[in-house]
Write a structure and sequence with these properties.
The protein is an alpha/beta fold and about 170 residues long. The chain has helices spanning about 15-20, 40-45, 60-70, 85-95, 110-130, 145-160; strands at about 25, 35, 50, 70-75, 105-110, 135-140, 165, 170. Helix 3 packs parallel to helix 4. The longest helix has 17 residues, at about 110-130. The radius of gyration is 20 Å and the shape is globular.
Length: about 170
């Protein structure tokens, strides 16, 4: 292939996104018809994520109701302004959702103070207290140096989170 060819047969083509990623209907072992996407296979939930938005998804009753209805929702940590409030909210959601369901958290890198306790406390709750925190969305509003963001993600990857998402980088483990 030449760098400046005009022949159609020599042009590179990418994948057909419509064909590759179109949702499909499948029948599960119980005979129910479900939608099959990469998201549904990864999470085991319908292809809908209720994104975190302060103050609504900082409310443990609201978050628990969504999880109990069978959907994924992010707890918005931006409204959880102290370690005690964060702990209370996560613990309450954990107690109100069925065994086997996980918790997703949305951490806003808005200021250093919030992130300085939120990320370590979430890791601690998952690692040492057996709270089912499956994933973290890290929203980088005040952009730290790229190396800082990479270090945060590398540390979170070591903790074996199921899903890590950022407005700069997406890591699905």
């Amino acid at each position: 292939m030449f760098a400046y060819t005009t022949e159609l047969k020599d042009l590179p083509y990418g994948i057909n996104w419509a064909k590759e990623f179109t949702p499909k209907l499948i029948r599960n072992a119980d005979g129910n018809i479900l939608m099959d996407t990469r998201y549904t296979r990864l999470t085991g939930h319908p292809p809908l994520l209720v994104g975190g938005m302060t103050p609504t998804t900082s409310n443990p009753e609201f978050v628990s109701a969504i999880v109990n209805a069978g959907y994924n929702v992010e707890i918005t940590c931006g409204g959880l302004y102290s370690p005690e409030v964060l702990e209370k909210c996560i613990q309450e959601v954990s107690e109100k959702i069925p065994d086997g369901e996980g918790i997703l958290c949305n951490v806003i890198f808005l200021n250093q103070r919030l992130c300085s306790f939120q990320i370590p406390n979430l890791v601690d709750m998952r690692r040492y207290r057996n709270i089912r925190i499956e994933g973290i969305t890290l929203l980088l509003l005040v952009f730290p140096l790229s190396i800082t963001a990479v270090r945060i993600f590398q540390n979170l990857l070591k903790q074996a989170f199921h899903m890590l998402v950022s407005n700069q980088v997406i890591w699905l483990v």
